[in-house]
Write the C-alpha cells for this entry.
Amino acid sequence: MNLKPLKDFLFGLLFLDLYREINKIHRQTRLLVELLIFGDFLGLPLLSTYYSLRLLPYVYPSLSEIRKEAVKEHDIFDLLGEHHVH
Amino acid sequence: MLNTPAPYILLGLVLYFLTYRFYARWVDKKIWETDPNRPTPSRLYFDGVEYFPVSKYVLFGYQFKSVAALGPIVGPLTAVLFFGWLPALLWVIFGNMFIGWAQDYSAMMMSVRNEGRSMGPITYKLLGDRARKILLVYLIFYLIIITAVFEWVIIDVLNRVPGTFTATLFVLFGGVIFGQLIFRMRMDVLLATLVALLIVLVGYFTVALIPAAQWPTTNFLDSPGFFTQYGFDPKLTYPGTFTVAFWLLVLSILYYIAATTPMPKFLLPTVYVGYLPSIIALVLVLLAALVTPITGLTIQQQAVKNLYVDPMANPQGGPVWPILFVTIACGAISGWHSLVSSGLTSKQLEYETDALPVGGGAMFTEGAVALSSIAAVMVLSQPPAGAAAYVQGASLLTTKMLQVPPIYMNILYGIFVTVMGLITSMLFVRVFRLIMAELFEDSPLGNKYISPIVLLIVAGFLAFVGSWTNLWVFFGGTNQLLAGLALLLIAIYLASIKKPSWYTLIPGVFMAITTLAALAWETYVYLLYALQNKPIGVQAAVAKLYGGAVVQISNFLSAAFGALLLVLGAVMTYYLFAGVARYRQKQ
C-alpha cells in the first residue's frame, strides 16, 4: 500500500507552515550577513573588506540571486495569504 | 433512515464528487487548458522560501488547513437556527458546486498565470491603484467586525462549557513549549510534537476527570440574583456582565501578545499545537454524522422554518435572500480563500494540473466540514444559541458513536471551538496590524504597538455591548463580497486573455448583488433599532445595566460600519463591472 500521499497530506496539514517560516528566518539572517559583507557589489555604499574580497569567489555564482532577493518588492497581499483568517 | 442526517450528508458528498469529476474537470481542461509541461512560478522563480514546488498532496493538506477553521462551523449552524436545515444544506451543497470551488481554483490559476502574484498586484495591474487601496480599507473593517464576532463566540463557549478555559490554557502552554523546543533548543520536530501532545492530553484528562478543574463555572463573576432580578437565564451569556468583561480582557492580552511578538515565539507554534486536537474533532464529527442510522440519532430540527422574519420581531433573521447567503460564508464560498490561493499556494504548485485537486479539492473538503456542522445541529431538539449549539450537537453525535461519557466529547468540542476561534482571532489582529502599517506608514496608527490597541478597543466595545449574530451577517457580507470581487476579477482576467468567463462572471454578479443587498438590509436593521432606541436580542441586558444610550451608540456605530462597507463594496463593484465591460468589449 502506497502511504506517500497520506504522509504528504499530513506534512502539508501540519508542517508546511513551520517549514516555510524556518526557511524565511534562515533567508533573512543569510541576507543580512550577505548585505553586510557584499553590499558594495549590490550597490550599497560599503567599502570592500579584505574578507569580502577573499570570500568573493565563493559567493560570485549566487550574486545575482542575492541581488534579486534583496531588491524584491513584497506586496501586503502576499502576507495576507499567509494568514488563515476566516 | 431518511429521518437521520446521514443520507443528506452523503448526498452532499456525492454531488461534490460528481461536480469535481465532471464540471470542474471540464473547466480545467477547456477554459484554463492546464498543461503539466508549462512551467509554474514555483519552478520558474525557485528560491526555496516563497517559491518551491511541492507535491499536490502536501499542498492539499496545507490548503485545507488554511481554509477550514471556525467559519464553516459557525455559519451553517447559525443558518439552521434561523431558517431550518434544508435551506442551509442546499446553499452549502449548491454554493460549493457552482461558486465555492470555482473561486478557489480560478484564483489559484490566475495567480499561476501571473507569475504567482497575489490579488493585490493583479487588481493593481487590471484596475489601478485606487481599487487596490479600497480593497485594503475594506479589509480593515472586515477585520474589526470578525474580531468582535469571534471574541463573542469564544467568550460564549468559555463561559458556558466549564473547564474549556483550563484545557485551552494547556493547549497554549503546549504551543509555547513546542516553539521553544523547536526554535531555541532545535529539538527534533516529532519529539517536540510528542511533548506538546502530552501537555495537551494532560490538560484534557485533568479537566475531564477532576471536577475541580472544570473551572470557571458559568457567569462566575456575576451573582445568580443579578440574572433572576432581570428575568435572565443564569446559564446563558449576556453582554455587559463582569464575566464577559473579564474574558474580553483575557482575550485582548492574548491577542496583543500574538500581534506584537515574532511569529515563531508564540503564534506559529500555538497554531500548530492547537490544530492537533482540532483535526481529530473534525474527522470524528463527520464520521459520526454518517453513522447516525446505526447510532439511532434522528433529525430534531425543522426542515424549513420562517423564510422571512420581521426585523422588529426577530432582528437576527431577515429574508432568506440575501441573509442566508451571507450567514453561511465559509463552507459554501469565502472571499478570504482567494487570498490564500493566490498569495501563497500558487507559488508552490508543482504542475498546473495540480491546481484542481489542491484548490477545488480543498474547497469541497471544507464543504464536507460545513455539512457536518449542519448535521450536529440537526440532531438537537432545543439547541442553545451560538457556537454552544455546535459543541452540544457534535458531543451528542460523537458520544453515541464512541460510547464514551459525554464529558469527554463536551470538553473536546469546547477546546476545538475555543482554540480554532483563538487561533484565527490572533491572526486577525496580526493581519490588522500589517494592513494598518501599509495604509498609515508615517502615522502612529501604523505603529505595530498602537494599531492592535485600536482594533481591540473597537472590537471589544462591539463584543461587550453587541449582538454577535447581527455582526456575523456583516462578517459574512464582507467575506462574500470579497468573493464576488475575486470572481469578477477572475472574469476580467479571463476576458483579457480572450477566454470564456461566464462560469465566474455569473456567480460573481450574483454574489456582488446578494451581499450588497445583505449589507444594506443589516445596516437598515441596525439603524431602525438605533433610531427607535431599542436593544437587539441580548443587548437588552446591556440596556438594563448601563441604560439605552450605550446600546443606541453601539447600534449607530454598527450601522455606520454597515454603511461604510456598503459604499466601499459598491465602489469596488463598480470598478469591477466597468473593468469587465471594458475587457469584454476588447474581446
In short: Chain B is about 75% helix and 0% strand. Residues 262 and 268 of chain B are 9 Å apart (CA to CA). The domain at 6-162+216-465 of chain B is CATH 1.20.1740 (Amino acid/polyamine transporter I). Chain B has a mean pLDDT of 89.
